[in-house]
Automatic annotation (TrEMBL):
Lineage of producing organism: Bacteria, Bacillati, Actinomycetota, Actinomycetes, Kitasatosporales
Entry protein name: Xanthine dehydrogenase family protein molybdopterin-binding subunit
Location of the region described as Disordered in the Swiss-Prot/TrEMBL record: 1-25
Biased composition (Low complexity): 13-25
Gene3D superfamilies referenced in this protein's UniProt entry, alphabetically: Aldehyde oxidase/xanthine dehydrogenase, a/b hammerhead (3.90.1170.50), Aldehyde oxidase/xanthine dehydrogenase, molybdopterin binding domain (3.30.365.10)
Pfam families documented for this protein: Ald_Xan_dh_C, MoCoBD_1, MoCoBD_2
Coiled coil ranges: none
SUPFAM superfamilies listed in its UniProt record: CO dehydrogenase molybdoprotein N-domain-like (SSF54665), Molybdenum cofactor-binding domain (SSF56003)
Domain Aldehyde oxidase/xanthine dehydrogenase a/b hammerhead: 42-148
Amino acid sequence: MSNDAATATVDGAIPAAAPEQQAPAHGIGASLAPVDARAKTEGTFPYAADLWAEGLLWAAVLRAPHACARIVSIDTSAAVAMPGVRSVVTHADVPGDPAFGRRVADRPVFAAEFVRHHGEPIAAVAADHPDTARLAAAAIAVEYEVLEPVTDPEKAFAAEPLHPDGNLIRHIPLQYGDPEVTGDVVVEGLYRIGRQDPAPIGAEAGLAVPRPDGGVELYTASTDPHSDRDLAAACFGLEPDRVKVVVTGVPGATGDREDLGFQLPLGLLALRTGCPVKLTATREESFLGHAHRHPTLLRYRHHADTEGRLVKVEAQILLDAGAYAEASSESLAAAVAFACGPYVVPHAFVEGWAVRTNNPPSGHVRGEGAMQVCAAYEGQMDKLAAKLGLDPAELRMRNALATGDLLPTGQTVTCPAPVAELLAAVRDFPLPTLPKDAPEDDWLLPGGPEGAGEPDAVRRGVGYALGMVHMLGAEGTDEVSTATVKVQDGVATVICAAVETGQGFTTLARQIVQETLGIDEVHVAPVDTDQPPAGPATHGRHTWVSGGAVERAAKMVRTQLLQPLAHKFGMSTELLQIADGKITSYDGVLSTTVTEAMDGKELWATAQCRPHPTEPLDETGQGDAFVGLAFCAIRAVVDVDIELGSVRVVELAVAQDVGRILNPRQLAARIEAGVTQGVGAALTENLRTVRGQIRHPDLTGYALPTALDAPDIRIVKLVEERDVVAPFGAKAASAVPVVTSPAAIASAVRAATGRPVNRLPIRPQAAVVQQG
């Protein structure tokens, strides 16, 4: 496949190889199936909720019913006295650091003096039966002085401090260009983005097992085990080597998978009782405990000339961090840096704030920061197009970013940035046919089968959006991963602490070793903290950093394998190749199998991968903060019932900058999953709160899109232009369609209704058009 090859699909699923190209059976470029695919589809995969141990106790956590309150007293006597209860712990029983946090240690293990959000842990119980544990937790008497919560982030600036660290987490005043410049055409807009939950379908669960040396082992579906280990050790007052985190049963993740708010009480209870302790969170506890996407308020003013070329962008971005900092600083940096989108903007002035409130904590969810600003700047582009009388796609084309252009942070885009090519691909892809009005096809109408809609009230709209995300960590984050590759008796083993969260790392690791060593049978060892760290499973890290470490280790083993043969035949190892389990020389003189060359030996190597460093944004928002960027264009087609306000997404055409296709089937699945998550953010997913309290913490009140809600997804082009600084040249795949699809859907609803549509998810009243 050429570097800029377009790969269209008929069913919007798996890119097909060209006729002259036979897809490989293994190695890079093959659609190798995940090892756990069969077990997961058959229901035999051992998830964390399936864990068991001899002498098991059960845990339950008491959570605060208020969003803001002072704790007057905590009385655990009734719970302690209950038969079957083995231990009750509160803030007074934490032997180490009382607060934790992956980025900022500002979140208490248990609330001590104040409750800062609904559902904050107050105490935890271990008992011999789960029902006993829950009853004992409910029996703990807590006296609260309920306080007025601060739930409006705009009011947080003037409110009394909600935390000893203050209410302002971070402020970034980006300044780029001349503030006095103005354009011939100016449009303004106010946009609001709701609170999306990562909504892990698998139950969040864990098992803590005490060790004879006074330490503890935590068996959880962690996505960042070494960070979790260090935080737990500090909380438990132990050295890190006395805490071990074993990753088990990860069902998938679209953000930080596990809530440390129950992992840490679990370990404390195991250390106190000397028994294994298990906790499986209810769906309500998951909604109350883990972090959500930042609700965001955005104010924009775009300046353009009469030809539609952008002159200046002014913006204010306010992220609601909830009660604790979590990933808010990083999310704000992404929001501010990408506030103008993948467009050339010669002058930009963006102010961003992340503030604490008494709302549920916000944190890492795919495309954090970038998704919120994409919805806003694309709304602005639609307004500009309407005011100038230009086609929305043409306006975007005139301003598309390209390699060599500058971001408003002053950083040069050095990676491939085929933004115009992506936009042209979705613009030129044939539109879907219009639905029939026959009664048997009523299900095609917005509202679904038996809906109240009438065909005459349905309007079709077509909208566009361009999105971008950064890959790996940013602003000076030290990105590094370590991997070991061992080969013996024709079998290779990869040891790397990169957690498989559904992004396909274990499959990729197998493909890398197959490609490099010509060995078909490759196993990836289970992950625990006895292995060197590989970092969190976010921002495409493991494809780049951990995949790069595996590749380097495999190449070192390859050299060990080929060096004796090369020496024997008087040639360099570069003149030997490995394919299909055979080693051959360029001239055909040497031909042997990998097994014969191994001769019973065990070969192994350990390697690291560390990308080039980045730097923090300075006091004016300038700096080379990002290792790499990925881009996406989406065209949305929607049908809107303008009387009822119901929206049906008919089709999403996707063109994406992927660098290099490593596994076609896996890549298509990641893109489709990201697009579908974006559909939820656009239309249904909003974790609603009243005075800081989550209204419906369940999957009845929180509406995830189902298979019936998923539209036709057409992957019309995958641009393979390799990023030379990335291993294999590949780019992150799943976050950028999440960022782009909500904005495209909103754009299509604007086209169908003529309404501004400035809020996500789109409420029915925003799509209603008054008749007559």
